[in-house]
Amino acid sequence: MYNHRCEGGDINTMQKKWYRLDTAALIFPAIASRDWSNVFRVSATLNEAVDPEVLQQAADDMRSRFPSFFVTLRKGFFWYYLEESHLPVKVQSDFAYPLTFMSQRELRRNCFRILYYQNRIAVECFHSLADGRGGSTFLCNLVAHYLELKYRIEIPKEGLITDLKTTPSPEELEDSFLKNAAPVASGRKEERSYRLRGTREPSGFRTLTTGIVDTKTLLDAAHRYQVTVTAFLTAAMVESVIGIQNDRLPKKRQRAVKITIPVDLRRLYGSRTLRNFSLVLNVGVDPRYGDYSFEELAKSIYHQLCTMATKQNMAGMIAANVIPQKNAAIRLTPVVIKNPIMNAIYRRVGEGGGSLCISNITGLSLPEIMNAYIARMEFIIGPQRSYPNNCSVLSYGGKTYINMIRNIRESELERRFFSRLVELGIPVEIECNRRNESCIV
Fold it and tell me: Cα–Cα distance between 399 and 214 in angstroms, integer?
């Protein structure tokens, strides 16, 4: 999965490892812009203030066990690629707002950040590096090692936690898309979904509204409708977007309302990769066909997910991304020509099928001893390039943290969504990074 090359053509120079971008990662450097660099954040809030010096030592110790993270983005003649970086990843005091722009200059040094603020440790990753599952695995191991150094404790190497003295397996570094593609590709064509619009924030500011709910209460509510938490939350989001569309457009001019759901393919295919290995499904309804009760929405979305998220169907979707890579003409096209082509393709099919995304990281398995030191964990994705709102979810310690982010001023979607959860019997505690935000439920 990685290779060696000599810098400057001198066989006596230090060799560096380099990694081909995985199949999902290829698109991100080509479409990144000042307004959208596709960065996500995973974080852990501890019960005590973070010691920056200990955190720096913990970060330095991660390099040999997680080499695919300590890389820099390089532009080759035919493709972008990731190259081993010998530059230190310096831990930084958290600044500005979450997911600030990651410039090309920064990516040429390192493709992720380690941030701290009071009790919180956060990792922000450029999406070509990993997906939410890979990023959360890195964070959990970073926090585990920090706790070992800070408190002189031994944390069992179980669940997501690994021994930093071991060598990473080839499976952790592989492009699992290449192994699991079907011989033929499924079609990409989808009807375009309704898009929210609003007044763009100046200077790229992103408003983050966090709804904190009791996990058991949320699970019980989902089980009353015999659906998963993801399907339940998606149904509430679809209802909210339909309500906004009803206020703005007559029925005949409306569009389908679909939510983009990332599917972690590791569970389907038994992969252990720490790189990207997820694909998205667009699920929802067309309100022009008639009104839906919440129960009808929840069950429809649940069955759509069950039907679409199969090994066979996903293999066809994987093939739609893998097969073009193997085309000789595409492979031999210079990257300066590939970029505008990939940009145009992404504009046409990349985000058109969804109104916004709900990304839910589930099944974080940590040793029991860590729970005494960690108060909460969160996952934040940014707005997409072509729509202003997004939502990400993570459960830990009996609480579920629902992070809704936007780059517009209007908070209507958050108010409708969290109010709907309350109507469904789920009390919500609201936090917001914007003063005087009128989104309290």
Answer: 5
